[in-house]
Fold each of these.
Amino acid sequence: MIKLPHHFHSFLLMGCFSSIFLCLSSAPAQDPIDIPVPVIQGTPSQTYTPGAWQPVARINPNQPIKVTILNQTGYNLETGLTTGKTNTQIAPGGSFTINNVPVNSDIVINSIARAAILDYRINVQDNMVNVTVTTAPGVAGDNAINIQDTGAIYIY
């Protein structure tokens, strides 16, 4: 049996895919397909552009950012910045405020004792981001709030 260096396996695999791509790329082109893109109605973002991926709100990235999380789930929650600066628990009906949140931050919020599907509602006033956390029906929920250096706030 011949032993090959680990990086050689990637080379062989890429070579196989390159051959497949070359075969597929010689296929005749088809007319483009128009795919409807859902538009979010009533978005609070003032810089809305058509497209499916829109921020839920915006802040001024040049001013201090404060985030308050209100727990309306009925479960104990844990929250924190992915930078590890702030980790805390929030009791049902309680709230927690994170001061001076840096831009390019992700804030995660999870149920502690029970797998719960969470829904985040965002409201921004004077660079104060208010996050109301409730439970939601379904199989997938919100996991993180992303504040970008442009001031755009996304929910993942």
Amino acid sequence: MKRRIVLSLALAAMTFVPMNGFAQWAPQKDFDDKYATELVKPGTKAPDFKLKTSDGKNLKLSNYKGKYVVLDFWASWCPDCRKDIPEVQRMYNKFHAKGVEFIGVSFDTNKDAWVNALKKYGIVYPQVSELKKMRESAVAQSFGVKWIPSMVLVNPKGEVELSTVLSYKMEKKLTELTASQNRPLANVCQDVTIDGAKGKLAAYLVKPEGLKEGEKAPLAILMHGFSGNKEGQLEKLIADSLQKYGVGSIRFDFNGHGKSEGKFSEMTVPNEIEDAKKVYEYACSLPWVDNTKIAIAGHSQGGVVTSMLAGELGASKIKAAVLLAPAAVLRDDAIRGATMGAQYDPLDPPAEGVKLYGNLVLGADYIRTAFSLPIYETAAKYTGPACIIHGTGDKVVPYTYGERYHGIWPNSELHILDFYDHGFSQNVYHAAEIASDFIIRSVK
């Protein structure tokens, strides 16, 4: 049975840093490379089976032809299976309403233990079993199941769409397959320009759906990470969800990034905080924005800016704060004299800056200010609702930095996502959903 070992997985290129040859950001193998090698392959015909359900009825897989079917191979005696049950149930609740069927295939040999587990965990989707050990099970052999939990997605044609031992891969695939069923959004981004710390900031403003003349609505300010921009998929997904549920948003390029003015070499965390304050002031000036319901969210370095802005403005002005893989490590990196793989003397940074990947140059002021940046001290002044999301597979910013935020913010919730990397590339939809759901709950 697979063990819960923290591995580094692929880093999404869309936000913090692009893939560039640094070994720590290169794609890494995941558990499928070890535990899913014998599972039935995508594109092959799914083996049919006829098995007894927990209440003694017959269930045949081929009867589900015409629908997507998730086969969840598990057993009540399997610790990893029990750990995955909440995730599978969450997926069932989310996707069954969109026509996806779920069938649990248990390798329990004791029926009482199997049935008791179903009752204990409140599992409601159909369950079948041969009541045989996995190595003796005909269905395990036909599907190539050697480790549990394992999942296989069968498409409406009866063919295998996906085989994996990682539940986040299944959720990502189902999200993409059912995306066309979602109601199209009127997410028309209005291009706006805002005065920032180093010149004009380019921004996208999104009004919530159905907002009537004279009505006011909550708004979220979304902030990208180091070397990113407002075009990131993570930020767009959050904005889309917020709009659908009556929350506006504004996402912008920090100075020296994207289409905003300023030089990247002159960018610092303090002047990014000043950028964010200017955007906050702009948001408050909009006639349709409810100034008492403004949320802020940021990824990576944008998460640090978010946390410090929340601390400076306080809970009276910030209704909710969301940190996605907050890069508070940037201060430690500066003290060590090592940022993004580049080495330098932190006590005497070169006046011309430090060359990073591509054509980026990290300015000496960035290093000097980061060296003594009071990240947690400033953030701790915020007492409002907060949400921290971090992955255990994040090699750019270890998830312990997210845990520390949770420790200093008593009114926060913490979501540690197993195996997720810095950009949440394992399933960016899930990270965005957690963030948007929290904001909606906090401001509506």
